Write a sequence for this structure.
């Protein structure tokens, strides 16, 4: 009788072991996806730094980022007040009563600005540009506008001076001038996120000058972590945890006097103007708004800086999904001190809507919120 070849059985056992291991590994890996890749680009957009992040299959990231970038460039080229060839610049140069053809995107932003003007009871006004130019000149000559100058500029401010037509807009006075700085950036960010979401991504984020909209999650974390800047120290008031599971987008936008301002007579004055008075808004050093999209968050951050927390909270109660935080500086404090730039160093007081708290986390590297925790 032929004896069995032990080498044969040994080889067969090895092969069966390998096959079993592969089957077991395949069974354990059912439903698993490879870890997502993450790619970031940092172009200069709208006169400021930006950051676009896409998370998902590696072969989809470049296309998603380029689609988002194209949307931002489109908005900037149409709605910039610094580009003399933009649609908005053509509108601002137009004579009274002359319709100016505008793209659907520019008309959409103007319509959103008109809606916000009504909802904010005039605290947001896209026709603010004559007043902005007046205060910029006041900063250069280091003295506030004269009463007659302020009165003349105020006559040109009011959204009722602008009529939106199918495919065009028309001004009631040739001196009416529009600035969409308080809402166009948010619109561009939102359009960029919508472009990203045409791709099979796990998450995405668009950050232009600190205004952010995001969805999903980053590759190495369960949420996006966005710092709320302290408007005086340069540190953080806290960190917002945004995104995570689900498909909803969430945005956070900030307005304040810590990046753009004029200094007159040693006093720091916000670039955010109250259209109802013509004077710089003084209610808050900084306002941060969280909302479902960057259009609303951007526009309401400006409006809430003008309104202050009392009126702001009252009006936001009619805007589902919008939450706000005000960093307030008491101008009456006798212990306040200013630096060489007119920067008030008095302590801040924090006011916020109740819903804002669920996003905010005070982390170890964040400045503790005064009078709150």
């Amino acid at each position: 009788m032929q004896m069995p070849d032990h080498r044969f059985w040994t080889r067969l056992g090895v092969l069966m072991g390998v096959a079993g291991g592969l089957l077991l590994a395949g069974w354990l890996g059912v439903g698993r996806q490879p870890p997502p890749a993450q790619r970031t680009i940092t172009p200069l957009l709208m006169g400021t730094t930006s950051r676009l992040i896409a998370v998902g299959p590696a072969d989809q990231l470049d296309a998603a980022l380029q689609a988002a970038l194209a949307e931002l460039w489109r908005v900037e080229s149409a709605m910039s007040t610094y580009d003399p060839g933009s649609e908005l610049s053509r509108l601002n140069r137009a004579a009274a009563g002359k319709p100016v053809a505008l793209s659907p995107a520019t008309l959409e932003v103007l319509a959103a600005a008109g809606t916000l003007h009504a909802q904010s009871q005039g605290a947001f006004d896209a026709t603010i540009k004559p007043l902005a130019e007046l205060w910029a000149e006041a900063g250069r000559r280091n003295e506030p506008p004269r009463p007659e100058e302020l009165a003349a500029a105020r006559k040109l401010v009011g959204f009722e001076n602008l009529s939106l037509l199918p495919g065009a807009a028309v001004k009631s006075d040739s001196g009416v001038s529009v600035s969409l700085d308080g809402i166009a950036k948010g619109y561009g960010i939102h359009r960029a996120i919508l472009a990203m979401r045409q791709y099979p991504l796990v998450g995405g984020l668009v950050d232009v000058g600190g205004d952010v909209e995001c969805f999903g999650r980053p590759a190495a974390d369960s949420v996006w972590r966005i710092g709320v800047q302290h408007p005086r120290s340069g540190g953080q008031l806290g960190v917002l945890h945004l995104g995570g599971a689900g498909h909803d987008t969430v945005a956070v936008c900030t307005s304040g006097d810590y990046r753009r301002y004029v200094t007159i007579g040693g006093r720091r004055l916000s670039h955010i103007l109250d259209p109802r008075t013509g004077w710089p808004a003084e209610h808050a050093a900084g306002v941060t708004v969280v909302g479902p999209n960057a259009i609303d968050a951007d526009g309401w951050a400006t409006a809430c800086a003008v309104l202050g927390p009392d009126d702001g909270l009252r009006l936001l109660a009619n805007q589902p999904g919008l939450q706000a935080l005000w960093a307030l500086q008491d101008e009456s404090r006798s212990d306040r001190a200013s630096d060489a730039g007119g920067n008030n160093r008095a302590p801040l007081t924090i006011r916020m809507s109740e819903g804002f708290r669920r996003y905010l986390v005070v982390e170890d590297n964040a400045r503790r919120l005064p009078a709150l925790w």
About this structure: The chain has a mean pLDDT of 84. The chain has eight helices and 17 strands.
